[in-house]
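From the methods appendix. Each design record in this collection lists the tokenized structure first, followed by the designed amino acid sequence. Records were kept in a plain field format so they could be parsed without special tools. The example shown here is representative of the layout used throughout.

RECORD:
FOLD TOKENS (104 positions):
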């Protein structure tokens, strides 16, 4: 997958002859809004289950929402975080799955 900087979205294997730690792969394939959306949903879900003692249907609804967004991204390439950043953010999303950000 091409990156905006011209590189590609792939992890390069570490040379086995060096003892130095490997550099992490480049950040790609998702907008920061998508990561914040996932972190926020996980935090709300954990708080609802543990601290607030929410009813089972609330917990299941949050879980279904998360799984639905994951399915939409993997099956159809629809990144909800990218769509939210496009609608409400000041900067356009980058590194969306399948290059869907460039098509809009």
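DESIGN:
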């Amino acid at each position: 997958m091409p990156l905006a900087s011209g590189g590609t979205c792939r992890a390069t294997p570490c040379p086995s002859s060096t003892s130095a730690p490997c550099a992490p792969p480049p950040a790609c394939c998702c907008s920061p809004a998508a990561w914040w959306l996932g972190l926020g949903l996980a935090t709300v879900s954990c708080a609802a289950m543990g601290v607030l003692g929410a009813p089972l249907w609330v917990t299941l609804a949050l879980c279904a929402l998360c799984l639905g967004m994951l399915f939409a991204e993997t099956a159809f390439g629809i990144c909800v975080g990218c769509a939210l950043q496009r609608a409400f953010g000041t900067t356009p999303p980058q590194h969306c799955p399948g290059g869907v950000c460039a098509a809009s």
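APPENDIX NOTE: The CA atoms of residues 35 and 43 lie 12 Å apart.
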